[in-house]
Design a protein that fits this description.
By secondary structure, the protein is an alpha+beta fold. 34% of the residues lie in helices and 21% in strands. The strands form 2 sheets. Strands 1, 2, 3, 4 and 5 form a 5-stranded mixed beta sheet that branches. A two-stranded antiparallel sheet has the order 6-7. The chain is globular, with a radius of gyration of 18 Å.
């Protein structure tokens, strides 16, 4: 099954989703030249071989290379994330999560050094205001979920309980993917509203 990935200035390409989630994300990273250690602007293709000049130029243009891997995900054109980066089963077949010929935008999940979700950056030239607002709402939702999980861990510590691996990651199946504990519950309620899900 094929989906479209939009990027840059109204460009798009087809991706076959009949592969593991990790392979799908790695292919999209490679196709759009997003390195594991940071992002590289897709419009910049310099013949400069000297790394110092290249780094100086990129930093002057406002692009920063991060020492750790960037989190990436796909969102639809309304700004709803697929949350592929939270999947506990990265070897799960990605085709179960998509419908044929859907269009998605690659996004970078920006986090602070303490793990705080800061923003979500779409890899399109000029994202609309509605898309930016939707992605900010997604950022807020991810951060609320993260804080809720941290409070739950702190409560367990104060009660003298030692959280086990299963308590930390309580997998819950929803919409064909595995999500982490409270993140799954909140995500299901947020996306499905008051509808009841069969899990």
């Amino acid at each position: 099954m094929l989906i479209y990935i939009k990027h840059a200035e109204d460009e798009q390409f087809l991706v076959n989703t009949n592969c593991p989630i990790s392979v799908l994300l790695q292919y999209v990273r490679t196709k759009l030249e997003i390195a594991e250690s940071g992002t590289r602007p897709t419009s910049f293709r310099s013949p400069i071989a000297n790394g110092v000049l290249l780094t100086t130029f990129i930093n002057a243009m406002g692009f920063m290379f991060s020492p750790r891997a960037e989190l990436v995900d796909l969102c639809d054109e309304q700004g709803v994330l697929k949350l592929l980066f939270l999947s506990q089963q990265p070897q799960e077949n990605a085709s179960r999560l998509f419908s044929p010929r859907e269009t998605f935008i690659l996004c970078t999940i920006n986090r602070a050094s303490d793990g705080t979700y800061v923003s979500i950056t779409p890899h399109v030239k000029s994202p609309g205001l509605a898309l930016q607002e939707a992605l900010q709402n997604e950022t807020d939702s991810l951060e609320k979920t993260r804080l809720k999980q941290l409070r739950a861990l702190e409560e367990r510590k104060t009660l003298g309980e030692t959280p086990t691996r299963s308590q930390l990651s309580q997998p819950v199946k929803g919409r064909g993917r595995m999500l982490i504990g409270d993140a799954a519950d909140e995500e299901l309620h947020r996306r499905m509203g008051s509808k009841k899900n069969q899990i």
